[in-house]
TrEMBL record:
Residues 58-114, 230-292 form the Cupin type-2 domain. Keywords: Dioxygenase, Oxidoreductase. The keyword Oxidoreductase applies. This is Cupin type-2 domain-containing protein. PANTHER family: 1,2-DIOXYGENASE PROTEIN-RELATED, CUPIN. SUPFAM superfamilies: RmlC-like cupins. Gene3D superfamilies: Jelly Rolls. It holds the Pfam family Cupin_2. It comes from marine metagenome. The keyword Zinc does not apply.
Length: 326
């Protein structure tokens, strides 16, 4: 039985707090300026966890700001929610960021972030495996000897090299690191992929149309301890309920709807964030009659699968739908 509760964080409640943090704390005064998303449970408060092995928070950057470079044992990923002109540098690779991009910061990689002076205030969701690293007592942390890294490669070299669908550079086998060489997954490519998938299949009973962010050199997860998906719910779509081992954090990337999690209804609109704890029934509904809804999510499935403890089950009762309780 999970120790964590289904929890929703409404962006309308969070956004002003996130912007206020930008006025209260300067980048050089803290390793990162993050509003932490704490699970509404004793376990969440004890382990500083959003759900299970997953930590999440909202980070904000103003134009001209740069965070100090550092690295740590925890793996990290970012989902860009709003703004313009943001970028990250990961082990010397500078990557420009746009809304709804999915970005990797693998464990052990030096990284810093910033917003160009001609950009706009930018907010993104961080996702890390800090609770897992803390439990394993391996969450080492190191500060870069300089404030920022040197840029060792042409800007956007990672997506320009590895971002062509179905194709790899002829020398791609020389990539031997345990994470994806594609460090940013562009929203336009992801959205087009979902639309194309919807032309070829009827979708999943439980997720409608869903794509996994994968390592293009292996086809597996992009990182070893966390995975991520983007899914599209067709207008008026109501998925059936299922449950699985492994915890999931969701972020509404567009549209409006609700999810039934453990028999309770959680309504969401764009940028709202919610979680599904391990082995809890859940189903999703798109409330629009004409527009698709998009849900970004990240999870700890790679850990469950590596340990051979991933399990999934469909709900048979009530034609596959939960009974909603107040």
């Amino acid at each position: 039985v999970t120790r964590y509760n289904p929890t929703i964080w409404k962006y309308s409640d969070l956004r002003d707090l996130v912007l206020k943090s930008a006025e209260l704390v300067k980048p050089e005064e803290a390793g990162r300026r993050v509003v932490v998303l704490m699970n509404d449970s004793e376990a969440g408060r004890k382990h500083t966890a959003s759900v299970g092995w997953l930590f999440s928070g909202l980070q904000v950057m103003k134009p001209g700001e740069i965070t100090p470079a550092h690295r740590h044992m925890a793996s990290a990923q970012r989902f860009i929610m709003e703004g313009d002109g943001a970028y990250t540098v990961v082990d010397g690779h500078e990557i420009e960021l746009e809304k709804n991009d999915y970005v990797l910061t693998p464990n052990g990689c030096w990284h810093d972030h910033g917003v160009f002076k001609n950009g706009r205030v930018s907010i993104w969701q961080d996702g890390l495996d800090i609770p897992l690293m803390n439990s394993l007592e391996t969450n080492f942390y190191e500060v870069y000897p300089k404030e920022v890294q040197e840029k060792d490669y042409p800007t956007n070299d990672s997506p320009n090299t590895f971002g062509t669908t179905g194709m790899l550079p002829a020398d791609s086998m020389s990539w031997s690191k345990p994470y994806s060489p594609l460090m940013v997954y562009r929203w336009e490519d992801t959205k087009n992929g979902l639309y194309n998938l919807s032309k070829a299949s009827e979708g999943s009973l439980y997720d409608d149309y869903i794509l996994r962010y994968s390592n293009p050199t292996t086809g597996g997860w992009a990182m070893k301890t966390m995975g991520a998906h983007m899914q599209m719910l067709k207008p008026k779509r109501h998925t059936k309920a299922h449950r699985h081992t492994g915890n999931v954090m969701y972020n509404c990337a567009g549209g409006e709807g609700y999810s039934v999690i453990g028999g309770k209804r959680f309504d969401w609109v764009e940028h709202d964030i919610f979680c599904v704890p391990s082995w809890v029934w859940h189903e999703h509904v798109n409330l629009s009659n004409s527009e698709e809804a998009f849900l970004y999510s990240f999870n700890d499935f790679p850990v469950m699968q590596s340990l051979s403890i991933y399990k999934e089950e469909a709900l048979d009762d009530n034609n596959g739908f939960q009974i909603v309780v107040d």
